[in-house]
């Protein structure tokens, strides 16, 4: 049974794995045979994710093992230490990396505080770089030939959004970073793609006022918000060898928003 699963024998590192889309990715990857490392600044969230994976495991205990780690993706020392720990733990580095950790700190551009701008860039863009660099170095050293890196950008990075100049800029940067990484890592057999979600029901969007939530839904051709599990399905495709000829792609998962 395990041999037919899409991520059998793979180790997957998921940042932001303690909440929302990252948690749904962990759940789907585990059901598809991966050993999952959920890393999050919110350690309790990451631990809850791993408990869910263990509780819902459809497999006999077998070769899979899941772990939760505290991680601030914008802290280079912490990132390098985590990647070293994961490599020692599994005797191989992660061959799948999902950069899902992200934050918003909204304000109109003319009133945006410098520290809020810097913080969002630090987590969303620099964090994606730091984790990708450390994992890529480990993949190259280990001669991984089926590596897959998936970065979370946003539809907002493509079209902009009122009140989100910091977030939109960070996500546009993630797309450019993804394409460059794809070009540089192709020679090692490592692919790198970006997912651009639209409006997904997670704690990140739960803070929006209800009237705004309803207005946005009217602009979505499918007339509803997306679920984290629907984004996770695309992530699984990009992680597995089923997408073996895709690298440097921007994949929109938005219910048609902004088409
Ligand atoms: P979420 O539910 O808020 O999950 C993000 C997770 O990342 C949270 O557990 C958060 O912890 C964690 N995190 C924050 N800062 C971190 C750091 N410095 N290091 C490590 N972890 C950190 O958000 P989501 O909706 O699942 O979003 C996942 C990704 O998709 C993000 O990159 C987001 O920008 C992107 N995205 C989401 C949507 C959407 O509609 N939901 C749309 C487009 C793009 P705390 O909760 O403690 O902050």
Automatic annotation (TrEMBL):
An annotated GO BP: estrogen metabolic process
SUPFAM superfamilies, sorted: NAD(P)-binding Rossmann-fold domains
GO molecular function, one term: estradiol 17-beta-dehydrogenase [NAD(P)+] activity
Signal peptide: none
Transmembrane segment boundaries: none
Compartments reported by the entry: Mitochondrion matrix
Presence of the UniProt keyword Mitochondrion in the record: yes
Database matches in InterPro entries: KR_dom (IPR057326), NAD(P)-bd_dom_sf (IPR036291), Sc_DH/Rdtase_CS (IPR020904), SDR_fam (IPR002347)
E.C. numbers: 1.1.1.239, 1.1.1.n12
Keywords for the protein's UniProt record, in alphabetical order: Fatty acid biosynthesis, Fatty acid metabolism, Lipid biosynthesis, Lipid metabolism, Mitochondrion, NAD, Oxidoreductase, Phosphoprotein
Residue ranges of domain Ketoreductase in the record: 10-219
One Pfam short name: adh_short_C2
Gene3D superfamilies reported for this sequence: NAD(P)-binding Rossmann-like Domain
The protein's annotated pathway: Steroid biosynthesis; estrogen biosynthesis; Lipid metabolism; fatty acid biosynthesis
Reaction(s) catalysed (UniProt annotation): a (3R)-3-hydroxyacyl-CoA + NAD(+) = a 3-oxoacyl-CoA + NADH + H(+); 17beta-hydroxy-5alpha-androstan-3-one + NAD(+) = 5alpha-androstan-3,17-dione + NADH + H(+); testosterone + NAD(+) = androst-4-ene-3,17-dione + NADH + H(+); 17beta-estradiol + NAD(+) = estrone + NADH + H(+)
Chief localization: mitochondrion
Subunit structure: Heterotetramer with CBR4; contains two molecules of HSD17B8 and CBR4.
Family: Belongs to the short-chain dehydrogenases/reductases (SDR) family.
PANTHER family per the UniProt record, alphabetical: (3R)-3-HYDROXYACYL-COA DEHYDROGENASE, SHORT-CHAIN DEHYDROGENASES/REDUCTASES FAMILY MEMBER
The name this protein goes by in its record: (3R)-3-hydroxyacyl-CoA dehydrogenase
The organism of origin for this protein: Patiria miniata
Organism taxonomic ancestry: Eukaryota, Metazoa, Echinodermata, Eleutherozoa, Asterozoa
């Amino acid at each position: 049974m395990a041999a037919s699963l899409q991520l059998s024998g793979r180790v997957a590192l998921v940042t932001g794995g303690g909440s929302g889309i990252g948690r749904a990715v962990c759940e789907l990857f585990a059901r598809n045979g991966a050993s999952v490392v959920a890393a999050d600044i919110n350690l309790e969230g990451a631990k809850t994710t791993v408990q869910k994976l263990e509780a819902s495991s459809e497999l006999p205990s077998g070769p899979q093992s899941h772990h939760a780690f505290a991680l601030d993706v914008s802290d280079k020392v912490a990132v390098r230490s985590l990647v070293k720990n994961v490599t020692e733990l599994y005797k191989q580095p992660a061959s799948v990396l999902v950069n899902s950790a992200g934050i918003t700190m909204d304000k109109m551009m003319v009133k945006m505080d410098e520290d809020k701008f810097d913080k969002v860039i630090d987590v969303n863009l620099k964090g994606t770089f730091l984790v990708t660099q450390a994992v890529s170095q480990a993949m190259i050293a280990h001669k991984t030939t089926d590596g897959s890196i998936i970065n979370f950008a946003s539809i907002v990075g493509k079209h902009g959004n009122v009140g989100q100049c910091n977030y939109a800029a960070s996500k546009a940067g993630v797309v450019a970073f993804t394409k460059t990484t794809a070009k540089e890592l192709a020679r090692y057999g490592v692919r790198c793609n970006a997912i651009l979600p639209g409006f997904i029901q997670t704690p990140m969007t739960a803070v929006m006022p209800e009237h705004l939530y309803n207005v946005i839904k009217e602009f979505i051709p499918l007339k509803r918000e997306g679920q984290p599990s629907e984004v996770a399905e695309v992530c699984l495709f990009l992680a597995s060898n089923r997408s073996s000829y895709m690298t440097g792609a921007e994949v929109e998962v938005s219910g048609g928003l902004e088409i």
